[in-house]
UniProtKB/TrEMBL annotation:
This is Protein PHYLLO, chloroplastic isoform X4. Pfam families: MR_MLE_C (PF13378), TPP_enzyme_C (PF02775), TPP_enzyme_M_2 (PF16582), TPP_enzyme_N (PF02776). GO terms for molecular function: 2-succinyl-5-enolpyruvyl-6-hydroxy-3-cyclohexene-1-carboxylic-acid synthase activity; metal ion binding; thiamine pyrophosphate binding. CDD domains: TPP_PYR_MenD, TPP_SHCHC_synthase. The keyword Ribonucleoprotein does not apply. It comes from Theobroma cacao. One of its GO terms (biological process) is menaquinone biosynthetic process. It comes from the Eukaryota. HAMAP family: MenD. Residues 1158-1254 form the Mandelate racemase/muconate lactonizing enzyme C-terminal domain. Keywords: Magnesium, Manganese, Metal-binding, Thiamine pyrophosphate, Transferase.
């Protein structure tokens, strides 16, 4: 039996045994009959005139084609085994080999079958190179490469940048058909994969391939399709390596023969490919393709389709699916050693070398040799600046069939464009310039390339020696012009036939070798030319070409540089100093993995695998590509596999955190780190073991604390560590760091989202929304890259990509390619670099730069307009009118504004719109968050380049940055204060938790009310009124008990029956669940916990259920920790309160239902005032005419006086016109606010502006989504003065806290309001109201704002309670000192800690329920799977099961 590692997704219907699966066994521990439904019906399929030829092999019993009736369709399943992701392609081959070897030891007993082994490998393009590496004497066919490029499939594009595609060898399953066999009826089978990644078939339509005769001919109605033995299928974000085994004894292909075929293919491909670490693998492509002996035919197209599509309805001579197959027009295919066809793969570049003797003059000869050798070395992108002296080089480059040329009048922009191309393609670009200052203009780009290890070849034309140093026009000393910034310099002599021409070739070969060898960087070849500079004929001796015959007859470089090194794959044991490094890492106590700038996708892949293996905290720089990572759609709990600490920079603003953070081993991969605070933290950790890994040998250690410098790629380093046994240590310290990161991150998210204006941190936060797996980001310098590093966020794609399906829980996230010029970190040339990056990486690029950077390189717009061989790009310009970064530096505090504006900000009023208009580039201007979102979306969907200009302000930007830092520091201090008070074990084996839940029970209560609730219209027929709900009891493993109340309201579309169904569900899933110790932080911790620990989306719980659950958990944690609820919510504030003379209390607002005459209502209000209420809320909009309501309010105000806060609540019962009428009549009544005056929330702002009255939100926030801050942006209007928050209606304390913080941040009141709950909920609300007031005080102190008087909270519903769920008295009454009605925090705390149920109001208790647990098991000859089932409730029908499935 073949045991699969991955879980099979088997629908219940598939559990019914089928006649053709007689050898399969199905059984359950408690058998349950399932309906017998056929999977396929014969009438569903029409006749197909197809023929099975040559071993079509599948996993089920093969049915003889002669036994099939016309139109039958046989469907079989391919068993797919998905292996863990491999570090490299080589490792992937080895993993598949080991899996097949294990299969050989325990072969399947079935006489026929299809088995597929697949594995995720690094995503960089390797298929073409692998194909080209196969020997001319290949013994395995077919052999092919298929490019997936659809838009510009030309031979030239093949060499311009990476070409993703498919490499395949051998045929495990083949499908052929010939229309020359008329009238023969047969069938074709479909291959179904049990995995979510379907198998693919490749081949040709209208081609008849006779495998016996090894002949190929065009024939309408024929096709040849097959599934390769081994294939590498490259996607945007992942590559899939697969091997397929197919056998059938009836088709004369046994399992042993299938193994032999596979091994032949594996041996060949394993022995012929370039190592992953080889940078210049593209050099072999051109020469290899020319040796293949294939025919170029542009009319032939190759098809590619899901194997499921093989078969189906009749469509002429074909199944309809064949006609709908995707076709590709760039491929190379070898049927046999002598038969092959190619499309858009072969070039006529050989004609260039053959025509060397025919060149008009020696200048043209040398120029041709230079350009041709560059193309053979893989350098096919030429950036040509205009000039006369460089004419021979420019003419040769423009005429070469494989060379792509781009030009610009500005050499500086052109050079930076070349850098961008090299960054994106990992290949050097060639720059051609004329002599003089044209060469000098390249210096900034050469410096950047040198500092950041970017390959670059500069070909500078020059005057000959006789014109040097004699005053000749446009002549300067160009020898060693760039000094130490180039890796290699050589000045060629002027072209002459007296020097062997091969000297030119060896010079090029040497220069390019130096440019692409560590340390990678720019090289410079100076090329003097005498006249004639054009193609004017001038006699030259062909003897200078001696020794070039072989070179001219092939397509390989003249000199091949070969680096001989011991392969790291064979290095099973590390030696020497690496053993010391491993000892440091293995003995780690507090380790940190720090990821700096990473250039290649394969290194990013290696870093992810390493991070998952180490399970250390991981800090990633914006240039690593992992800061804006994409979470795979099926798995949100990325922290469980890889612990990213994204917000360490802002956490370090806290003195407590800085003093606490200490690492003993730091591994840094990639040299550059953007964050200054993190760099300072690393210095503070010294002395420690600091291990720096990078490809180059240069010293990147400005703090001078690196103890181990490893010159290696991330792949090589990860390979060594993955082989070693690194212990996994989960500690209290690591849990603290995770909690700190979460709290600071949520604070930053809140501040950025709560700010109603479009801020620069918001731009950094949302740029990931404009990115996809087919996108890349180029980030500018100065403030832009720092904001992205601090405020960028990961994101989740709603689309299920191949990566989602393949990686599953192995690697739960993917990177986004990010580039920037951080070599010298200048602001020059950024736009041009971004455009070159778009060409090189072949992705849609989003470029984000500041306005000064944009203006510094406006000539880059001339390059942008050319739009050569690249996808559309979006340029986001943040225009704050100057250099905003200086406003965040200390100099801004001590320098007068005039000097700052003129000499630092360099303020300007240049119109970016008009600059774009002059260059013919689309321009969009945005000023709001919504406009930015729409602009980013439309630009990413469009097919034209677009510049989006975002309006900003230096002063506002500086203020908001300061505010974020303050709040982030406060959040870090708050988190540290909470965590330091929690008693946790030092070593935790199961992650970050406080305690496990032992059990849960609930009771249904029914308490009488003394009057009808004001939330509903009174029923004159009723004399008694009740409030019903549930009391939750949550018991922790340490015996601590916390209580919560679930009180649904029918007006909120909840009822007791539905709510109890959810409680029964929670009763089972809560048992054994772990409670995270940072749940009391209320920073999205509950939402995350509900999903990760209970396996349900937080939004799926009824609001009242979530409120009661949060209440019970918070109270249980408080009891467990021996603290009050207020202590765990706000430990600092509670501590200050304990030091004060009296414990805090909460003001209460009285509540009146306005039925009765104006005089009667006024008397009731006055009675409340005499009782001690300082605030009163009156329900309105319940009378026939708003005039009557206005009369009530006027009378009440007259009766109670002006010192009483008067609020009214319309509950959205008025039309806009009625609300306006009421407002006009009460405008002199000094209302504190009117709550929800209009029926439609879209009219609220209009009402504020027209009526001039203060307004409060209530029902509006009840309908907010899970993350409501984006919706609340439009309610920042100053006339909206308050937010009324009912925790049981909006869904708990976490959301309530967020609404309160938003209100305080916007200078509004946050009113906590009850919904006629019992004393249990009211006591909790009292403490929560006190917490909200403390939060407001913290905010005012932080913002240097005057603290307003505390507000009266809407807890006056206690007066409706005729009886309560507890016998203890609720601590609400007159304050002995002031006489005002207030709620005592001490009394509320006592009630919660000593809570005892009043059994008189309990109608029913739920403490246990029978659960039937069983397992459904599916066994067959080749695989097995099981489904764990937990069944609750009674069965109404033995054929139907009411069940829910565990997450096992």
């Amino acid at each position: 039996m073949l045991s699969l590692r991955d879980t099979l997704s088997i629908p219940f219907l598939a559990l019914t045994p089928k006649p053709h699966l007689k050898n399969h066994l199905f059984h359950t521990k408690n058998p349950t009959p399932y309906p017998r439904l056929p999977l396929f019906c014969k009438k569903d399929f029409l006749s197909c005139n197809l023929k099975l030829v040559n071993g079509v092999r599948f996993d089920g019993p093969i049915i003889d084609a002669n036994e099939l009736e016309d139109g039958d369709l046989v469907v079989e399943t391919c068993i797919t085994h998905t292996l863990p992701p491999a570090l490299t392609l080589e490792h992937g081959l080895q993993s598949i080999k080991e899996a097949v070897d294990a299969l050989k030891l325990n072969p399947p007993c079935s006489s026929s079958g299809v088995l597929r082994f697949q594995i995720a490998v690094p995503p960089s393009a390797k298929a073409l190179n692998w194909f080209c590496s196969q020997p001319e004497s290949s013994a395995v066919f077919p052999l092919f490469f298929l490019s997936k490029e659809l838009n510009r499939s030309t031979c030239k594009s093949l060499y311009l940048n990476t070409a993703r595609g498919v490499f395949g060898i051998g045929a495990a399953v083949s499908f052929t058909n010939s229309s020359s066999v008329p009238g023969e009826l047969s069938s074709i089978k479909r291959c179904l994969s049990n995995d979510s990644i379907p198998m693919s078939t490749y081949g040709f339509l209208d081609i008849n391939f006779n495998t016996e005769l090894s002949s190929v001919k065009l024939e309408a109605g024929s096709f040849y399709l097959f599934i390769p033995l081994i294939e590498l299928d490259e996607h945007e974000d992942i590559s899939i390596l697969a091997a397929t085994l197919a056998w059938s004894d009836s088709c004369l292909c046994t399992f042993e023969q299938a193994i032999h075929s596979y091994e032949s293919a594996l041996d060949q491909v394993s022995s012929h490919f370039s190592p992953t670490t080889e940078r210049c693998h593209f050099k072999c492509i051109r020469s290899a393709i020319r040796k293949l002996n294939v025919v170029e035919d542009g009319a032939v197209q190759m098809v590619y389709m899901n194997a499921l599509s093989m078969g189906g309805r009749d469509f002429g001579a074909y199944p309809m699916e064949l006609r709908g197959a995707a076709s590709f027009n760039q491929f190379c295919f070898k049927f046999t050693p002598t038969i092959g066809v190619a499309c858009n793969m072969l070039d006529n570049a050989s004609e260039m070398t053959y025509s060397v003797p025919d060149r008009a003059n020696i200048n043209a000869v040398w120029a041709l040799l230079i350009v041709e050798e560059c193309s053979r070395l893989g350098l096919t992108y030429f950036c040509v600046a205009p000039g006369s002296r460089s004419s021979p080089l420019a003419l040769a480059a423009s005429a070469h069939p494989l060379v792509t040329c781009i030009s610009c009048f500005d050499e500086r922009s052109l050079a930076f464009h070349a850098i961008g191309y090299a960054r994106g393609s990992q290949k050097a670009a060639v720059i051609i310039t004329t002599s003089g200052t044209a060469v000098s203009n390249l210096l900034p780009a050469v410096v950047e390339a040198s500092q950041d290890f970017v390959p670059l070849l500069v070909l500078s034309a020059d005057r000959p020696p006789e014109l040097q140093d004699c005053g000749a026009n446009q002549s300067i000393n160009q020898v060693n012009h760039f000094g130490s910034f180039v890796r290699f310099f050589f000045s060629l002599p002027p072209p002459t036939d007296e020097i062997p021409a091969r000297m030119v070739l060896t010079t090029l070969d040497s220069a390019v070798h130096r440019a692409t060898s560590s340390p990678i960087g720019p090289v410079h070849i100076n090329c003097p030319f005498r006249e004639p500079l054009d193609d004017s004929p001038k006699i030259w001796k062909s003897s200078c070409l001696e020794g070039l015959d072989t070179w001219m007859s092939n397509a390989e470089p003249f000199t091949k540089y070969i680096l001989v090194q011991h392969s790291y794959l064979c290095n099973n044991n590390t030696h020497g100093q690496m053993e010391e490094v491993l000892e440091k890492i293995q003995g780690v106590n507090k380790g940190l993995l720090l990821i700096g700038a990473i250039c290649t996708e394969d290194e990013m892949w290696a870093v992810l695998l390493l991070a998952k293996n180490l399970q250390w905290p991981v800090v990633v720089d914006i240039l690593s590509g992992l800061r804006l990572r994409r979470l795979l759609s099926s798995f949100l709990e990325v922290e469980e596999n890889i612990f990213f600490v994204d917000y360490l920079d802002h956490a370090l603003l806290s003195d407590s955190v800085r003093d606490w953070v200490q690492f003993d081993v730091i591994v840094q991969i990639g040299s550059r780190i953007t964050s200054k605070r993190i760099s300072q933290m690393l210095e503070k950790c010294f002395p420690c073991s600091y291990i720096l890994v990078d490809n180059h040998p240069c010293r990147h250690d400005p703090s001078h604390f690196v103890t181990h410098r490893i010159q290696s790629s991330a792949i090589e380093f990860a390979n060594i560590l993955l082989k070693a046994r690194i212990p996994h240590r989960s500690s209290k310290w690591c849990g603290y760091l995770q909690a700190l990161n979460m709290m600071v991150g949520q604070e930053i998210l809140f501040q950025v989202s709560a700010e109603h204006s479009l801020s620069e941190p918001h731009i950094a936060h949302v740029i990931s929304e404009a990115l996809s797996s087919e996108s890349a980001l180029f980030i500018g310098n100065s403030m832009v890259i720092r904001d992205a590093d601090m405020y960028g966020c990961n994101w989740k794609s709603d689309n299920h990509s191949i990566a989602d399906m393949m990686l599953k829980t192995e690697l739960p996230c993917k990177w986004v390619s990010v580039a920037g010029n951080r070599g010298a970190s200048g602001i020059d040339g950024l736009l041009s670099t971004a455009i070159g990056f778009a060409v090189g990486c072949n992705k849609r690029v989003l470029c984000v730069v500041g306005d000064i950077s944009f203006l510094h390189d406006t000539n880059g717009l001339a390059i942008l307009k050319q739009r050569m061989l690249r996808k559309p790009m979006t340029i986001l310009v943040i225009n704050n009118g100057g250099g905003a970064i200086f406003s965040l530096l200390p100099i801004a505090d001590i320098t007068e504004p005039r000097v700052l504006n003129q000499y630092f900000y360099t303020s300007h009023n240049i119109s970016i719109h008009k600059l774009c208009e002059a260059h013919g580039v689309k321009h969009l201007e945005v000023k709001t968050k919504m406009e930015l979102h729409e602009a980013l979306f439309s630009s990413q969907q469009g097919e034209t380049d677009c510049v989006i200009e975002v309006e900003s302000s230096i002063d506002a930007n500086a203020t908001f940055h300061s505010d974020i830092r303050k709040f982030a520091c406060q959040a870090a201090d708050h988190a540290f204060s909470i965590l330091s008070k929690l008693s946790l074990p030092e070593s935790m084996s199961q992650g970050c938790f406080h305690c496990k839940i032992h059990s849960m029970s609930y009771s249904l209560y029914r308490i009488p009310l003394c009057a009808p609730p004001t939330s509903s219209l009174s029923d004159s027929d009723r004399t008694r009124f009740y409030r019903e709900g549930f009391i939750l009891s949550l018991t922790l493993e340490d015996g601590s008990i916390g209580y919560g109340e679930v009180a649904p309201l029918e007006i909120c579309h909840e009822n007791l029956l539905d709510v109890e169904e959810q409680l029964r569900f929670l009763f089972h899933v809560l048992q054994g669940a772990t409670i995270n110790y940072f749940l009391p932080t209320l920073k999205s911790s509950f939402s995350s916990w509900i999903w990760k620990n209970l396996g349900i989306p937080a939004c799926s719980l009824f609001p009242s259920v979530r409120c009661g659950l949060e209440m019970a958990i918070l109270n249980a944690i408080a009891v467990s920790q021996g603290m009050t609820l207020l202590n765990i919510l706000h430990p600092q504030g509670a501590k200050e309160g304990e030091k004060s003379e009296r414990l805090p209390s909460v003001r209460i607002c009285g509540l009146i239902n306005s039925s009765g005459t104006p005089e009667e209502v006024a008397c009731i209000a006055n009675a409340l005032v005499e009782e001690g209420f300082t605030a009163i809320k009156i329900k309105v909009a319940r009378r026939a005419d708003p005039v009557e309501d206005a009369a009530v309010i006027q009378e009440v105000r007259k009766k109670v006086g002006c010192h009483i806060e008067l609020r009214v609540d319309a509950n959205r019962n008025w039309t806009y016109e009625e609300a306006i009428q009421f407002g006009c009549l009460v405008k002199d009544c000094n209302l504190q606010y009117i709550e929800e005056p209009v029926q439609h929330e879209d009219d609220i702002i209009r009402y504020c502006e027209e009526s001039g009255l203060p307004v409060a939100l209530d029902e509006t926030i009840d309908n907010c989504p899970e993350n409501p801050l984006n919706k609340l942006v439009k309610y920042s209007h100053p006339r909206i003065v308050a937010v009324v928050i009912k925790p049981t209606v909006i869904g708990g304390f976490e959301k309530a806290a967020m609404f309160a913080r938003w209100a305080h941040r916007r200078g509004k009141m946050a009113i906590i309001s009850a919904a006629f709950e019992s004393g249990l909920a009211l006591s909790t609300y009292i403490l929560f109201s006190c917490y909200v007031e403390m939060q407001n005080a913290d905010t005012c102190k932080l913002m240097n704002n005057k603290l307003a008087p505390s507000v009266a909270h809407g807890l006056g519903t206690y007066r409706w309670l005729e009886e309560d769920v507890t016998a203890d008295l609720l601590g609400i009454g007159p304050n002995p000192c002031t006489g005002f009605i207030e709620a005592s925090v001490a009394d509320a705390t006592h009630l919660l800690h000593k809570f005892q149920m009043n059994n008189n109001v309990v109608h029913r208790m739920f403490t246990a329920e029978e659960v039937l647990r069983y397992q459904i098991t599916l066994d067959s000859n080749d695989f097995s799977c099981s489904i764990n089932v937990q069944e609750i409730g009674q069965r109404n029908d033995r054929d139907c099961i009411s069940s829910w499935f565990s997450r096992n």
